[in-house]
């Protein structure tokens, strides 16, 4: 693969890396795994890049590859020790923007989301990224109706986790 | 709940600033790393499975057993069986390659999982086939030993075997080949299913969940 394509790819990914980091923070629990998953997603993106025609936005295309890698292709390594001092980025909240109850509420919500299964997480992730149900359904390969049904179930599930 | 999710969504959108930032060089380095995805593992394991049984023939001990067959009346059957199993193996390799090529990370999640499972199933069928072939082979060898009387002279057992009667030698040889053959086949089967069971546990769980939605 030629140098120019490579440069183009790395630049695009550098500018859009937040999407990948967000996926990693949802699906992993420590820094090593986060980096590991980030690397695997990068490899998958790069392998698929020649097929990216630019008919959709680079970021749109990234969602699919990143989620597919996290849900399906990535093999969690079991050897990793959970680093105590590491607080997943997902729990970092800019404290000055919320009052105490809201902040508490947010932390609980993120914790609840982290407890969801792989597929549920994918739906929540796309929902949080402001994707509509059509896009969510297309990414996962289910119907739009089922995506809605599933999302409602997840909301119920989250409610139960928050108010046991 | 709606409000809480909306609050979460707003906060989520602001998360960008808190995310780690990798430099151009760091990302560039990653593009040259090797993938360790399950598809890669399936490919590696499958290649091993397609080649390992054939490497067995290189071992001196198995060559000895084979030479017994090449020297006597069983030879045509043996050749026929080899041709048969090789053509089946080639068919499986072709099938595997075709399905493997269909796997694309650009598919939707459900299709991607379905194709991976389909590819794996090809290897699974191949394994079941080759393990049954090994068993058939073991049976044929055992029967061969039983039916042939002159083969003992083909094998060189050395001085120690001189005192043992030919019947006893024959019987123990049949037992040894039979037991070792069956145990080996069984062990290979267990290793294989454990390997894939662990590798694809997560995938299967997620695939079932997506499929359950459609009912």
TrEMBL record, chain A:
GO terms for biological process: DNA-templated transcription initiation. InterPro entries: RNA_pol_sigma-70-like (IPR039425), RNA_pol_sigma-70_dom (IPR014284), RNA_pol_sigma70_r2 (IPR007627), RNA_pol_sigma70_r4_t2 (IPR013249), RNA_pol_sigma_r2 (IPR013325), RNA_pol_sigma_r3/r4-like (IPR013324), WH-like_DNA-bd_sf (IPR036388). Residues 109-158 form the RNA polymerase sigma factor 70 region 4 type domain. One of its GO terms (molecular function) is sigma factor activity. SUPFAM superfamilies: Sigma2 domain of RNA polymerase sigma factors, Sigma3 and sigma4 domains of RNA polymerase sigma factors. Keywords: Sigma factor, Transcription, Transcription regulation. The keyword Electron transport does not apply. Transmembrane segments: none annotated. Residues 14-79 form the RNA polymerase sigma-70 region domain. It comes from the Bacteria. Belongs to the sigma-70 factor family. ECF subfamily. This is RNA polymerase sigma factor. It comes from Pelagihabitans pacificus. The lineage of its organism: Bacteria, Pseudomonadati, Bacteroidota, Flavobacteriia, Flavobacteriales.
From TrEMBL, chain B:
The chain crosses the membrane at residues 38-57, 77-94, 123-147, 173-195. Keywords: Membrane, Transmembrane, Transmembrane helix. This is Uncharacterized protein.
């Amino acid at each position: 693969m030629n140098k120019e394509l490579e440069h183009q790819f790395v630049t695009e990914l550098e500018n859009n890396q937040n999407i990948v980091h967000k996926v990693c923070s949802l699906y992993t629990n420590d820094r090593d795994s986060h980096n590991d998953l980030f690397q695997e997603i990068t490899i998958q993106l790069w392998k698929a890049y020649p097929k990216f025609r630019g008919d959709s936005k680079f970021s749109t295309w990234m969602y699919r590859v990143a989620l597919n890698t996290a849900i399906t292709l990535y093999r969690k390594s079991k050897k990793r020790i959970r680093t105590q001092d590491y607080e997943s980025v997902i729990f970092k909240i800019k404290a000055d923007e919320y009052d105490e109850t809201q902040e508490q509420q947010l932390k609980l919500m993120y914790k609840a989301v982290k407890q969801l299964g792989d597929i549920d997480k994918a739906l929540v992730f796309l929902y949080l990224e402001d994707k509509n149900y059509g896009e969510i359904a297309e990414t996962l390969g289910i119907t739009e109706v089922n995506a809605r049904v599933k999302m409602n179930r997840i909301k119920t599930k989250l409610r139960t986790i928050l108010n046991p | 709940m709606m409000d809480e999710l909306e609050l979460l969504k707003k906060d989520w959108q602001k998360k960008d600033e808190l995310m780690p930032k990798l430099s151009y060089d760091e990302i560039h380095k990653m593009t040259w790393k090797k993938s360790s995805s399950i598809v890669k593992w399936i490919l590696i394991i499958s290649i091993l499975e397609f080649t390992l049984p054939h490497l067995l023939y290189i071992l001196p001990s198995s060559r000895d057993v084979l030479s017994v067959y090449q020297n006597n009346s069983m030879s045509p059957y043996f050749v026929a069986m080899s041709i048969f199993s090789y053509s089946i193996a080639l068919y499986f390799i072709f099938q595997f390659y075709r399905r493997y090529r269909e796997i694309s990370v650009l598919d939707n999640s459900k299709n991607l999982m379905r194709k991976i499972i389909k590819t794996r199933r090809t290897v699974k069928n191949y394994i079941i086939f080759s393990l049954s072939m090994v068993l058939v082979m073991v049976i044929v060898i055992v029967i061969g030993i039983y039916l042939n009387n002159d083969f003992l002279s083909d094998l060189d057992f050395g001085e120690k075997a001189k005192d043992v009667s030919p019947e006893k030698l024959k019987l123990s040889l049949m037992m040894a080949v039979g037991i070792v053959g069956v145990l080996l086949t069984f062990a290979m089967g267990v290793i294989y299913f454990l390997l894939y069971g662990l590798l694809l546990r997560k995938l299967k769980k997620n695939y079932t969940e997506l499929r359950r939605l459609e009912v």
